[in-house]
Structure formats: C-alpha cells, structure tokens
Amino acid sequence: MHVTMLGYDVELDDELVEASPDELVSQLAEYERGERQLFDLPVRLPDSFTGDVMRAMLDIPYGETRTYGEIADAVDSHPVPVGQACGRNPVPLVVPCHRVVGADSLGGFSAAGGVDLKRALLAHERDGDTEQSALDAYR
Question: Ranges for the Methylated-DNA-[protein]-cysteine S-methyltransferase DNA binding domain (predicted)?
C-alpha cells in the first residue's frame, strides 16, 4: 500500500497489518494530524531477527528515540545488524523505525524520503523541534 505522510510517499506492506486498509489509512491520517500517538493495529511480525527488532521498535513510545545500540542490547545483538533490520521493516510508520537513531546522528532511513522523512517524523512527534534537540532530549 502506498500512503503519503507529511508530504512523503511511503510504501507499507498492508498484508502484515491485521486491519482493513480503510482502518490503516484512517489511523495514519489521525497520526499525521496529531490526533493519534499509538496505532491500534495488530501487526504480524516475522519469526526472525527482523521480527525481534520490530518488536523492540514497537516498545519505543511516541516522541522518544532509542539508539541502534540500545535496541541491539535489547535483542542481544550489535548496532549494525539492528540498522539492517530497521531497513527491512515492511511497515514503517506503524512499526516506528524512525525512532531508532545513531548515537551521534539520525542514522539512516530506508523509506522513500530517506533521512528527510525521518527528520520530519521525529520533528512531528517532538512538536516541530529540530533534529539536534530531538536527539538531545533522549541522551
């Protein structure tokens, strides 16, 4: 499924979301308008390392970030494979891979729009704060 979020096109594998396409689009629109902080959409996670990382990402609250290293500690791994798993996230936005950042940078973002979209999503969740203040708030 192709959706637009904050002016960027994002591809989601809606077959992994156990809700109707209309419900998915509705909740994404509520998030974009600032009316929703938590998605009420069950997601089928892969039974793999990527699924473990996705599960850890689902635990990151709205408006907060975790580093690749913190996620690596949570799943008993290392930051580089965590970053690779984030890049394989088939349902960005719903599983908030944008909330995973580098220790000293935003890190990457594989969705269309790349780091610009990641920056926009973090700013959206931080009421328009800059990239640096969003990172500083969680160190």
Answer: 49-126
Q: pLDDT tens-digit profile of 20-69?
A: 999 999 999 999 999 999 999 999 999 999 999 999 999 999 999 999 99
AA letter at 74: A
Q: Which of 97, 106, 111, 122 is catalytic?
A: 97
- Map out the domains of the chain with their CATH numbers: 2-136 (1.10.10.10)
Helix (H) or strand (E) holding 50: helix 49-58
pTM, entire model: 0.89
State how far the Cα of 107 lies from the Cα of 134, in Å rounded to an integer: 13
Could you give the CA distance from residue 133 to residue 101 in angstroms, rounded to a whole number? 13
